[in-house]
Amino acid sequence: xxxxxxxxxxxxxxxxxxxxxxxxxxxxxxxxxxxxxxxxxxxxxxxxxxxxxxxxxxxxxxxxxxxxxxxxxxxxxxxxxxxxxxxxxxxxxxxxxxxxxxxxxxxx
Length: 108
What we know:
By secondary structure, the protein is mainly α. It has helices at about 5-10, 20-45, 45-60, 60-70, 75-95, 95-105.
């Protein structure tokens, strides 16, 4: 799949960020991706499927949730890849602003 790490941020033009900001950015990217993928998949789920999937999420059973997705939505990885590409394009187009904002926060 993909790896959210320093190299990922460098590819997006965010290699100059301070370590603390890199960690915050990686967490933000992960949360945003998770939310977008969840919303995209939820649009395709019946109410019953949504209830089943939410049961795994509410129990914080990531392994069970992944198995459920693989069984019920075998192409979910394509959804993840598509949303990741969209998110990467958004970040790349704003990389200069993100770095500038980071520099401003460091001086305040």
